[in-house]
Amino acid sequence: MRRDLRGRVVLVTGASRGIGRRAAERLAKLGATLALTARSADDLNKVVGELKGLGARADSFPGDLTRPEDRERIVAQTVERFGQLDVLINCAGVCSFGEFSTSSEEVVRKVLEVNFFAPAEMIRVAAPHLTRSFETSHDGWRPVIVNVASICGRWGIPSMSEHCASKHAFVGLTESLRAEFQRFGIDVLLVLPGLVRSDDLNRHLLRNEGKIHLDFEGAQPSDEVADSVVRSLLKNRAEAAVGFASWWVWFGKRFFPRGVRFFMQRKVWKYARRHREREGSA
Ligand SMILES: NC(=O)c1ccc[n+]([C@@H]2O[C@H](COP(=O)([O-])OP(=O)(O)OC[C@H]3O[C@@H](n4cnc5c(N)ncnc54)[C@H](OP(=O)(O)O)[C@@H]3O)[C@@H](O)[C@H]2O)c1
User: Fold this and answer.
1) Ligand 1 and 153: CB distance under 6 A
2) How high is the pLDDT of residue 119?
3) Is the pTM here over 0.85, yes or no?
4) Angle separating helix axes 18-29 and 222-235, nearest 10 degrees
5) Comparing C-alpha atoms, which of 176, 148, 150 is closest to residue 162?
6) Can you list the residues of the chain whose pLDDT is less than 70?
7) Which of 158, 170, 252, 259 has the fewest other C-beta atoms within 10 Å?
8) Backbone dihedral region for residue 90 (phi beyond 0: left; psi -120 to 50: alpha; all else: beta)
9) What pLDDT sits at residue 142?
10) Using a 6 Å cutoff on CB, does residue 96 contact ligand 1?
11) What count of other Cβ atoms lies within 10 Å of the Cβ of residue 15?
12) Interstrand relation of 58-60 and 33-37 (parallel, antiparallel or unpaired)
């Protein structure tokens, strides 16, 4: 199967920067019509300007996806402006890096709110429009939801407990809906990036207090993840682990789970040893 996106209306969340922005650029080149959302209206408008420069139809509908009224409005404005909704890409997200014991209820609730409840409810709001897209198509077109989760949704990474919890919930929801939505003709796809280089790490991380070593600077470029999002859409790939680290964890979990567990524990032991040494020399 190869999905034709020409003239199809794609709503991308988290489109002001990072993976969402890069995915929107690629989809514009494929002839899709883009509805972009995130909180920062100025950043979104810049992206819309660029997409229009590429000859695409595009508009921005800023909003905070944790607010029910914003979710309803964003979907309604998309349909009002472009007449239909054919694809939803759930890309907005935040991360928290640090130990669970020194975090707070506020942080875990915030991460779950953005990474799980917001996309879950976006799907609920968008589903009737996606169903209509299937019912009114005469060329075998299948509408689609792409959920950009994380390899953290397949394996718990130390010092990312809140993020992992939110992404596990999101992966579970994706798998349930993949079966459930078949009767509406909607495909539900999952993309699992590993560590990705951020445009703005301070905005991406709600909290940056982790002590284990994670190479945020040397991580995978968001362009590669955006390529994978588009490939998943075009080829209707049910699940894609993106990048070597993500693929390694995905593969290792299936075939060498004790090896992956050991690797994760070793990261914490290393940090704990450094900590002890520092205390000893003080
Ligand atoms: N970066 C990584 O290492 C990594 C790894 C695996 C998976 N992922 C996942 O990939 C997705 C994209 O990540 P990224 O690296 O591109 O992150 P990013 O550069 O920080 O972009 C996140 C996007 O989400 C939007 N957003 C955040 N909170 C929002 C809210 N309450 N309402 C509406 N929009 C909101 C941001 O825009 P505003 O700030 O303007 O609202 C921004 O456009 C996320 O779901 C993330 O969990 C990332």
Assistant:
1) no
2) 98
3) yes
4) 50
5) 150
6) 282
7) 259
8) beta
9) 96
10) no
11) 31
12) parallel
